[in-house]
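Quick one: Dc3, putative from Entamoeba dispar, structure tokens please.
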Amino acid sequence: MNNTQVEFIFNLLDKDKSGYLDRDEFCEGLIEFYHITDDKKESYREIFNDIFLLADGKGLFNSRDNKITLREFKNICSLLPTETKQTDVIVGTVAFKLVDSNNSGKVNKKELITFLKKTGIHLKKGEVDVLMDSIDEDGDGKISLQEFMLLYDL
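--- reply ---
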């Protein structure tokens, strides 16, 4: 996706023309943009909300201000996979890449804890271990994209 396309989509989502996307504009706008059906809206609303929380403030010149700027939106769009047109894979991949902060292709326990905290979930160490074990289907101690996508009912 080129800069012109990204800016066009950003402006389309920016309903109030404020120059940034609040959480509602971001989540509801993407639900509309991807033509999400009623039976899947809640699941997508959850993952779009998590993407919003992970992307807000990500980057050298951005602050955590509960708004997505054009720069932050461009960062999100840079994570879009090009090899698929399946909405669930596109959205899941973006969320996964935001969580996989060391770009290893797997989410480790530290990254999982950071993800949980940024999305407002605070677990004790033992609870994190149980969650990690329940997600990590192949037992390698890390979460793959496929395992991560099981967190969301897309």
